[in-house]
Automatic annotation (TrEMBL):
Organism of this sequence: Roseovarius ramblicola
Keywords: Lyase
All residue ranges annotated as the Fe-S hydro-lyase tartrate dehydratase beta-type catalytic domain in the record: 4-186
Family to which this protein belongs: Belongs to the class-I fumarase family.
Matching PANTHER family: L(+)-TARTRATE DEHYDRATASE SUBUNIT BETA (PTHR43351), L(+)-TARTRATE DEHYDRATASE SUBUNIT BETA-RELATED (PTHR43351:SF2)
Protein name: Fumarate hydratase C-terminal domain-containing protein
One Pfam entry name: Fumerase_C
Entry annotated with the keyword Nucleotidyltransferase: no
InterPro entries reported for this sequence: Fe-S_hydro-lyase_TtdB-typ_cat, Fe-S_hydroAse_TtdB_cat_sf
Amino acid sequence: MTKPREIRLSTTPTPEALAELRLGDIVYLDGLLYTAREGVYKRALEEQANIPMELPGESAANFHCSPAAAIRSDGSFDMGAVTATASFRFAKWLPEWMEKSGAKLIIGKGGMSSKDYKEYFVPNGAIYLSTVGYGTGALLGRGIEKVEAVHWRDELGLAQAMWVIRCRRMGPFIVASDLDGNCLFERENAKIVQNLDRVYEGTRPATLKRYGETDDRSDEVIG
């Protein structure tokens, strides 16, 4: 098994740098990134508020997350961790947001489907970066150099505000989509499914079944 490539990537990546990324690459980010989720999307897209940053010139990296931040007595912010949230929740806003903001890196948890990538990301030349596992908020926090600004805090609150973060070697993130719209998780799941029958070969069917249980190992039940 080959070790994944590790790549340092600017938050204002060139088209050439994006084209070099491969599914499964490990990425560390340098530069400014901003947080934007439903509150920001509604305010900027549905309410037509002016975006308080020069995008994508200042940053082309949109992080779906909730910062763990405290306000110091001088009004500055202490941010020790950033916890990613699931990006599929914001899918309906992404096409318009990417077109308006020029975002090239969408960062979050769990990824999206290849259908989403092909429909939303490919036309905008964008890539999805996923956090690696759970409980990485403090690890990602090590890559924070400072909070540059917090926009729309009064209107949206701390969790939904648009945080502008200067980062240095923030990561690890994993490349979960490419410029062709391929999906890392779908590719790896297909490999796993090929071996499911062999893994469960010889096991006995369940004697008692609760609602939603099945002996078909290819089924996925989400509660």
